[in-house]
Amino acid sequence: MTNSSRRWVHGIVSAFIGGACGALDSALVLVLVAPNEFNLHSGLYRLLLTSLVFSILSGVKTSAAYLKNSPVPDEWKGEERRQNDAPTGK
To answer: What secondary structure letter does DSSP report for 73?
Structure first.
């Protein structure tokens, strides 16, 4: 794996983790908004499940934004893709 590939993997993982952490903060606001349904006693399961869903969705969204700015490196596209991209000489 080249340096550019490592940098790309590091960037996409960082984007996912950053989005997931941001969503966790938002999910914890549910304790303030609806304390009867989302609390640390009887509503803990619902709170954790909602936090997990928010985190996954936000992580996917930030990863997609990263992919928009930094597409998959050329070396990962595969031999078939490289052949299709090569000029045909016609």
So the answer is: P
* Domain-located, residue 27: yes
Does residue 45 lie within any of the structural domains?
yes
Q: Is residue 88 part of a domain?
A: no
Question: Are residues 23 and 54 in contact, defined by beta-carbon separation less than 8 angstroms?
Answer: yes
pLDDT in tens, 12-24: 999 999 988 888 7
Cα 43 to Cα 24, 36, 46, 48, 56: the distances in Å are: 16, 8, 5, 9, 20
Is residue 25 within 8 Å of 59, Cβ to Cβ? Answer: no
